[in-house]
Amino acid sequence: MSWNRIVLPLTGDDSPETVEIGKLGWEVYRREKEPAGFAMFHVTLTDERDRQVERIVYLTPVAASLCKNIAEKYPVEPCKPPARDEPHIAFVFGDPRMMGQLRDSMDTDALVVT
After folding, report:
1. How far, in Å, CA of 33 to CA of 9, rounded?
2. Number of structural domains in the chain
3. Model confidence, pTM
């Protein structure tokens, strides 16, 4: 199991897709009785003028495995966990212990030797 993400373009301050994904995820979280390891995070990417241009919704491995309802409606792709120091990262809901599973730094990618 891996982390998954959904990348959404932002065309204004609100994002109905982000709200819908959150509602779908919350329904599963509650129905499954708040499973350990289930969490959702958001990262908002901005342009050089600090305008919001993309929202990334991250699902932990447990959330990704249980949220088939989201994967049916939105393009989900496997990814690394987000980094603690990503600008505009937010814990949305779920198991708060999953904040401890975030990567230490975005800069650690440069240290990976392939």
Report:
1. 31
2. 1
3. 0.89
